[in-house]
Design brief:
611 residues; alpha+beta; Rossmann fold; six-stranded antiparallel sheet
């Protein structure tokens, strides 16, 4: 795993060092740059495969192509063998070289062949073009800007260190962040920086500045007929075995996160099945009994003879919270981020690579919200009349929820702040008048709504599960894991998101995941392989007790940021933000939204973004 940066015809080619240094933690083993008269490629390496000769930037023997790459390609050996039959002679044993020569032979056609997690940039010195791409679900990040030439980087952080780079807030990113606690691609919190969306490639011609972006993979629709349940279990079992076998490839020590839930416990099972011995496992122990899962993790570790490591959840004081948030490249209001960072820090002291159960809930139906249907909220004449009266200001906004139906009700239930002018979830409450206009509130969660509409036109279980893949999974869960782990130079792999697993599971009707309860497939596999104590208990999320922190050791620092909100973020409505904080602390408003605002203020205070 690595940190990359690439500059093409920019003013920063000779002063890139501070920007490049800002992502050093992503690749602590080596730092290398290469440049010609138009391009500069820079790479921080975390050595995992081919430790001796896999350094980057990497060039083809004819010097035409140069490349920087972040990620792992799990089928690179098979692709290497195929390329060798076509006459390619390799100089290293690395997956980087396979992508590089794969692109030379197949062009963008190399992308559907890659099974792994990746973000890479290739410079073609003959055509004077840049080609860049990300994996199917955006496991690895890639940001870019065309404000002066083309600049690309693994995260948003380097752009804050480019001398003179504009730091203007992206109001649409702000809108989506307040709605859902994360920023949705292609936006970033800086107006002049974009994220390359998952499953996409981009080509930039330095001669005329033309930029093209295309998807190379689409989330498929499910097949109509439901296969036999035993056949489903056998097929998923087999494909998960193959995924784990592939993702154990490494020339460094490897372990696994183990929360004690079904997903991470199955990862450990398949590691043991693949012959890993001993397995190194890692979990966090919370002081509050309601949040502590270590007894379940220990049951799994004992079953497979794992060498289990437990970190006691640190006392996350105010200073630790502020430090963790300001280190983020852009705000992310998942309260589990801080704990995930601590888990990654402990894990990195023992291994270089960890396997995670990320994606199990999104791919296999782990959330009750997937069972909601647009048809559960039918329109009616009285709802329409009620809505008109609320919009006219003749009835209070507190009644808005009762007036909603269909898709609008589904959106309302999924956001903390949205496009309604009056209600407890009104985004207008928390933004200045100018910001409210600039953020285009009517486009709240636009990508999510487009995705749900793209699978049959109805918001139902199948479309909701698929929409989460390029929204909640890619922009919250995978971002949290990537930033928390790479802060400590730890590579985290996600076997549930292997290409072959996606191809098998996404073709299944959504109903199979909820036959007899949620997450049927993984639950049945858990019943087959795991201790009963693991699969018989209710689902438990990895979170932190916000109520305790808001009324305890975080209270003073949070209230300080809230009091300075007008100074830090003039585009927020200070009165609305203050009211939200006090109500949330008392349990009378959304703690998640209040936490989102506090995180935003901390991040803005540390990164000096302008309106």
């Amino acid at each position: 795993m690595c940190g990359l940066m690439a500059l093409f015809d920019t003013p920063w080619q000779s002063s890139y060092q501070a920007a490049f240094a800002s992502i050093k933690s992503r690749g602590p083993d080596a730092s290398t740059t290469w440049s010609d008269d138009r391009a500069l490629l820079a790479h921080h390496r975390l050595s995992v495969i081919d430790l001796a000769s896999g350094s980057q930037p990497m060039r083809t023997t004819d010097s035409r192509y140069a490349m920087v790459f972040n990620g792992e390609i799990y089928n690179y050996r098979e692709l290497r063998a195929e390329l060798e039959t076509l006459g390619v002679v390799f100089a290293t044993q690395s997956d980087t070289e396979v992508i590089l020569y794969g692109y030379r032979v197949w062009g963008e056609g190399v992308l559907p062949r890659l099974n792994g997690m990746f973000a890479f940039v290739i410079w073609d010195s003959v055509e004077q073009c840049v080609f860049a791409a990300r994996d199917r679900l955006g496991i690895k990040p890639l940001f870019y800007s065309t404000v002066h030439g083309l600049a690309l980087a693994s995260t948003l952080k380097p752009f804050f260190h480019l001398d003179g780079f504009p730091r203007r807030i992206d109001y649409e990113a702000l809108r989506d962040y307040l709605a859902s606690q994360f920023v949705l691609a292609p936006h970033s919190m800086l107006r002049d920086v974009r994220q390359l969306p998952p499953a996409s490639w981009m080509r930039y011609d330095t001669r005329d500045g033309k930029l093209s972006i295309e998807r190379y993979w689409q989330i498929p629709s499910a097949q109509r007929a439901a296969p036999d349940q035993q056949d489903i279990l056998a097929e998923v079992d087999a494909v998960l075995q193959r995924s784990l076998q592939r993702q154990l490839i490494a020339d460094v020590p490897l372990g696994a996160f183990l929360s004690g839930g079904i997903d991470s416990s199955l990862i450990v099972h398949y590691m043991a099945q693949a012959g890993v011995n001993p397995i190194e496992t890692f979990s966090v122990r919370f002081k509050q009994a309601a949040f502590d899962e270590t007894m379940y993790a220990k049951a799994v570790a004992d079953k497979y003879g794992a060498r289990h490591h437990i970190i006691d959840a640190p006392d996350i004081g105010a200073d630790a919270l502020v430090s963790a948030i300001t280190l983020l490249d852009q705000p992310l209001a998942d309260p589990a981020y801080v704990m995930t960072s601590e888990l990654a820090r402990l894990t990195r002291s023992h291994v270089t690579v960890a396997l995670s159960g990320d994606g199990g809930d999104e791919l296999f139906g782990g959330y009750a919200r997937f069972l909601e249907q647009e048809s559960d909220y039918p329109a009616s004449a009285w709802r329409n009349a009620l809505r008109r009266l609320i919009d006219l200001g003749l009835l209070p906004g507190a009644l808005l929820r009762r007036s909603l139906s269909g898709k609008e009700m589904m959106l309302y239930r999924r956001v903390e702040a949205g496009p309604w002018k009056a209600s407890r979830k009104s985004l207008k409450r928390y933004l200045s008048a100018d910001a409210w206009q600039a953020c285009h509130p009517e486009e709240t969660m636009k990508l999510w709504r487009e995705l749900t509409a793209g699978f049959g036109g109805q918001m139902d279980t199948a479309s909701l599960m698929r929409a989460d893949l390029w929204t909640y999974l890619s922009e919250n869960c995978l971002v949290k894991t990537d930033r928390a782990s790479m802060l400590h130079g730890l590579e985290v792999r996600v076997p549930f998101l292997d290409n072959d697993v996606l191809d098998v599971v996404l073709k299944l009707p959504a109903s199979v995941h909820f036959a007899g309860g949620d997450k049927m497939i993984l639950r049945r596999l858990a019943q087959k392989y795991l201790p009963e104590v693991v699969w018989q208990r209710p689902k438990h999320g990895f979170s932190v007790p916000l109520h305790d922190y808001f009324n305890g050791q975080w209270r003073a620092v949070c209230e300080d940021y809230i009091a300075r909100s007008e100074q830090i973020a003039p585009f927020l409505n200070a009165a609305g933000v203050t009211q939200l904080w006090h109500a949330a602390r008392l349990g009378r408003a959304s703690r998640r939204l209040a936490y989102s605002v506090v995180v935003l203020l901390m991040w803005l205070d540390g990164n000096l973004v302008s309106a």
